[in-house]
Each structure stands twice: as C-alpha cells, then as structure tokens.
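Form 7-S
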Amino acid sequence: MSGLPASAPLTIAMVAGEASGDMLGANLIEAIKAQRPDAVFIGIGGPRMQSAGLHSLFPQETLAVRGYVEVICSLPAILSIRRGLVAALLARRPDVFIGVDAPDFNLDVEIRLKKAGIRTIHYVSPSIWVWRAERIHKIKRAVNHVLALFPLEEPIYQAAGIPVTYVGHPLAEKMPIEPDFAAARAQLRITPPSAPVFALLPGSRRGEVETMAPLFIEAARLIVAEVPDAQFLVPLATRPTLDLFERILIQHHATDLPIRKLFGHASDAMLASDAVLVASGTATLEVALAKRPMVISYKISALTYHLVKHKMRLPYVGLPNILCGEALVPELLQKEATPEKLAQALLGVWRDQAYCAQLMTRFTALHRELKQDSAARAAAAVLAVVAA
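Output:
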C-alpha cells in the first residue's frame, strides 16, 4: 500500500482503556502532531487524550475495570462498546489503529480491523515474557506492528516474525537520572532530615490495598520496635484507597504508629525514603528508577496463584529483577509475605550499604537504557507504518 502524500489528512484511531494508557496516548498524540499537524484522532480516550485532540466516541471509564467479578459485571457494556467502535471505524476507515495497552479489549478490535485491511499497532506489549506466552499467536493475527516499552521484548517479537520497535519507558523520562534525595526530604518536610524513612506502597487498587496494607502496617510496627525513630510514608493514588488505608489503620489499632499518608506524591515518597516496601507492579520499576533499595511483596488467593503459577515463564515477578535478569531485590510472595519476614528483609536491605551502592549503579544503568524519548520514537514508528 502506498504512503499518503504529506498534504493528505491523516486519520488515526486510538483506544486507551485506563489512566496510564491515557497518559501514553496523550503524549503520542502530541508527538505525532509535531510531525503531522493535520492529523485527526478518533477512538476512546480519557481527559488527557481528549485535551491533546482526540475525539472520544465512547466513555473511557467503562473500559477501566479490574478483576474477574468487575469485568463480568461490566461485560455487556464493554462488548456493546466494542461492537459500536468496530462498526464506526470500519465506516470511517482510519489510516491506522493504535491500541494503547488494554490487550483484552484492543487485540480483538485489532483483529477485526486488520482483517478489513486497516493497519494496526499495539502500544505496550502484553507481558508475554512473564506469563501466558501463547498470546503471541493472537498478537501476530492482530497487529502490523508492536511498540515495546522494554528492550527484552524486541527479540521475542522478532523471533515470532512480528514487526516491533523498542521505544523506551515513559517513567524513565519522568524520573531524574541522578535523584536529589535531600531535596525530596525537604519537599516532604521530613524532620529530623536524618531520620530513617521507609516508604510503604501497598498497591493502587482497592483489592491490593485490602490484602497488602495489613501486612505492611504490621511490618511497620515490628520495624519501629527495632528502630524507634523510624518514619513511614504511604502514598495512595486515589481518595477511595486513602480512605480504605485509614480504616485498616484503625482496625489494626495502628493510628499511633509514625505513618504519614500522602495523597499522590509516590515519586517524592520513594526519593525521600531510605528503603521501600512495595506491592508487585509498575511501582517497582518506579522505585528502581528512584535508585532506592526495596522489598517486593504480593499476595493473591491460593486458587488464583495456583492457576497463574503454571503459566509463568520467569522465576521473578518484580520488574527490576526481570529487567536486570537476576534476583537483585528480595521478593516475598504468598506464604512468604508475613510481617516478620517483610520487616527483616526491609531492615536488611536498608542496613547493607555496600548492597545499596551496588543497586544505585545497576538501577542507573537500567534507567539510561529505558530513557529513549519514548513518545517521539513511538510517533516515528507510527508514521513509518502509515507510510509503508
């Protein structure tokens, strides 16, 4: 198919299913508009993408659901939106469709559009390198190109014959290569400035906070018994999770502990801390980019863990360990995730200064590898697909 002349209007369809995708999508729209100011954007996106110029055909909130029960309850609405979206795009025939993350929704849309001759791109590779590797066959049917955030993803797609571009991770652009820990402490008014500070990140979703917060609070109690001047920072992303954490504190008779809750400010809390106790997820990468020692923990139902475990390809769950290719930071999962083990592991990494210096070196190298001006690289790859 011949490329469009520069003067032709360019129509790009995009779908982002939740807040993180909305941020990625908005940055990509801005980067494409810098090259093609005439481009028109349609699809589904949140407030950031709409501010950047996307005409959203359906509300993004309907797609932003997590967990089996929530998805089942929302399924009729989600399927209705998918049918309506596919029909609208087949009628409009955009030059390219970009599914931003949300693979459960976007891959099926991409399959239908690709069959109809519309070029498709998936931005943010599903974690096939961690679990459910068989999904790569569906991805191959669905896309003309993948935009990958991590360097380890590129050879996987190349081996499967799927065109791929490694674009880097946007978090690596947000965080400073050389963090100013003293400035972060001053920003959060840590007193005294030399106090031992630990950040507790029990997750961003209600279910995660319900499971992990009690363990983290009890670990904090044990740490205070050993380090009486310790302080704790707990950044929470939403008002519901903040209120939930407050209720759990009361239930555990822990309101007297030196725990300071923050509404947002996760990066500041990481940079101001000496060590971080963090639930597995993207936050672990952010802690690595903050160059902080950490202990990663996670706990899910025994049945879910049994089902998931057999589909996992790697011996680690934390992104820092996966990306560095070794067990660099401790992971305490399932039955290992006890307050006693969490407290001792966190105190262990905090006290080991040689280990902390080694982490700083490894995490700085990782940061440089992931910092690639991701939006500009992604925009260049999109426009190359359009021109092909």
